[in-house]
Each structure stands twice: as structure tokens, then as C-alpha cells.
Amino acid sequence: MRKTLYIIGLSAFVFSCTSQQNVKKNTYKPKTPVTQPKVVAKPQVQEKPKPQITNDHGVEFFTTNIADPAKNDNTVSYGSIVSAKPAGYKVVKTYFPAIAQNFRQKYLILHYTALPDDKSITVLTQQAVSAHYLVNNTGDNEIYQLVDENKRSYHAGVSAWRNDKNLNDTSIGIEIVNSGYTADASGKRLFVPFNDDQIKKVAALAKDIITRYQIPATNVLAHSDIAPTRKQDPGPLFPWKKLYDQYQIGMWYDDAMKQSYYDMAVSTDFTSKYNDSAFIFSVQTQLQKFGYGIELSGKWDDATKKTIEAFQYHFRPENYDGIMDAETWAILQALIQKYPVK
Ligand SMILES: [Zn+2]
């Protein structure tokens, strides 16, 4: 477009020069004055700065944001340029970056591997599962990248959150080396804590990804949030509140809001209608409203219990019994109010 405008401008300029020369050479003098043609100003073409491009291992990258944030879902453009190399032709990309583009990465999903360090690497690189990043537990300062951020890694599986499904398509996955859980005699899951150095690594990595892709707080989730009937990771010992308080990563509720919903629940005798299908239906509706992919059955079925448990892993980790008590209800309401679906 800019080249075309420049050519038009140049033609107009050449034409006007030729006209002036013709006038000088022409000896014919009209008797009546001729209105002089208006001088048309050459259109001023605003030269936009070309986006900077850098080359790393044969892949070109934009080094500045070039997109129009107003046209994006959540993100601005910034990243690698992978293009065709058609035989006999040249793909020109330097001069024509469109502002109508955004990133495909809308979610950040956190996992634990349930394996030690060496096995985690083997499984995530040699088998049918993967993640973009693997955070080890060896106390060094390294984070392993397993998949290019612009490609899909296979970490989420069948998954859903709010209006999205199959989150492998739109997410970055971080696997954290952690043994997961063992079950006690009663079947209760006992989870293994994360160490502080590892959490610092996760926080720095997550912050970097969230900032670059402008991933909203509502889209920073546990694997258990997007697949509650199948997954528990990264479990109730993953410090979501600490990440929110210290690094502004992800969601957390406001205490005062939670308290007012709690007082309301207690004053209306929350437990008396616990087994009414209308009450169960409203619980399922509220979980769905917040984001969980849950069926509205009106029954305390296994999927509903596991979804409540997943919610508790994330937001009420002190007690993850899968029962919708007044506190869990109050936290859910406080979160819905703070993070409404837009
Ligand atoms: Zn997982």
C-alpha cells in the first residue's frame, strides 16, 4: 500500500514537471486568460516505523508489538514469523505486517508431573504427552523448554473453561516436577509440598508468559480446573494465594466480599436445603458460571463432587472434601462477582 502511494505521488510529481516544461516551450498565447490549474499538494505519506526483526536459529522474530490491541481478544502480537518458501518465488513479509492479528495463546495451565526429575523429562519428551516448559526440582536456575510457544503441546487433554474447549489449542502448559499424592487408608489424598525455590521459578516463568501474551487472571488455571473429573494437579499444596499476593498471578477472592456472602449463607440456614435438587442445580449453575465445564444434573453426582473438589484445591485448599459448605459457597460467589464473564 505504502509503495503504491509513493508511486502515485512520484507520477504526479513527474507529470507536473513535464507540464511546466511544455508551457515554457509553447509559443501559443490565448487571448482570454486561462484559469491556472490548482496546484495539487503531494499527499503526505506517513512513514510508519518498520517492525524490528531479529533472527534466532533461522527463525525470524518481531521484536516489537505490532498489532492493534483494541482488535484483540486478550493479546497483542509479538513473536516468531514462520513463512512459506515457494519454489521460484520470494515471500516478502518485512513491509506488510498486518495489525489485525493476535496471539493464539489465551491460557496458562499449571501441572505437576507426579514423577521425579529424570522420569519427567523422559515422559514429556519421548511419549504422547508434553508441555511447553518443565520446572525441575534440582535447585538450579534452569527451566527446560520442550515445545515452541507457537506450537501446541499435549498437556491439557479433554478440557473446558468458560466458552472454550480443548485448551491445548490456546494455552501454554507448564509442568512442575512434584510427586503428586499418595492415598491414606481412608482413601484421602495426601499431597507432596512444593519447595520454595521451585515456586519462585514457576512464578518468574508464569509472570513472563502472562505479561507477553496479556493472559487475563481468569485464564491462569490448574489442570484440575479445566479437567476436574480426570485431574487433581497441581493439587491443594500449590500456593495460588501466594502467587496472587506476591506476583499478581491468577485469581483470588477479596476477604470482605467472601465474609459477606458467608454471613448471608449462614443466616439463611445453608445446610437445610442441601439435598434439594433446586439447591444442587444452583450450585452446578454457579460453578458453570465461574468457568467449570459441568453438567447441570440437579444431583450430587461424581462429576459435581470432583468439580467442587477441584475448586477447593485452588481456592479453599485447607479442606478439599468435595462438599459444598457455606465457606466454599461464599468463596465461589466472591470470585464470580470479582471475575465476571465478559
Ligand atoms: Zn496435568
TrEMBL record:
Instruction: List, alphabetically, the CDD domains matched.
Output: PGRP
Keyword tags? Cell wall biogenesis/degradation, Hydrolase
Superkingdom to which the source organism belongs: Bacteria
Residue ranges of domain N-acetylmuramoyl-L-alanine amidase in the record: 93-235
Q: Which InterPro entries match?
A: Amidase/PGRP_sf, Amidase_domain, NAMLAA_amidase_2, Peptidoglycan-bd-like, PGBD-like_sf, PGBDSf
Name of the protein: N-acetylmuramoyl-L-alanine amidase
Q: Which SUPFAM superfamilies has this protein been placed in?
A: N-acetylmuramoyl-L-alanine amidase-like, PGBD-like
- Family statement drawn from the similarity comment of this UniProt entry: Belongs to the N-acetylmuramoyl-L-alanine amidase 2 family.
Among Pfam families, the record links this protein to: Amidase_2, PG_binding_1
Q: What is its EC number?
A: 3.5.1.28
Q: Where is the signal peptide, in residue numbers?
A: none
The question of whether Hydrolase is a record keyword is answered with yes
Keyword Hydrolase in record = yes
> What sections of the protein cross the membrane?
none
> What SMART domains does its record include?
Ami_2
Task: Give the reaction(s) catalysed.
Answer: Hydrolyzes the link between N-acetylmuramoyl residues and L-amino acid residues in certain cell-wall glycopeptides
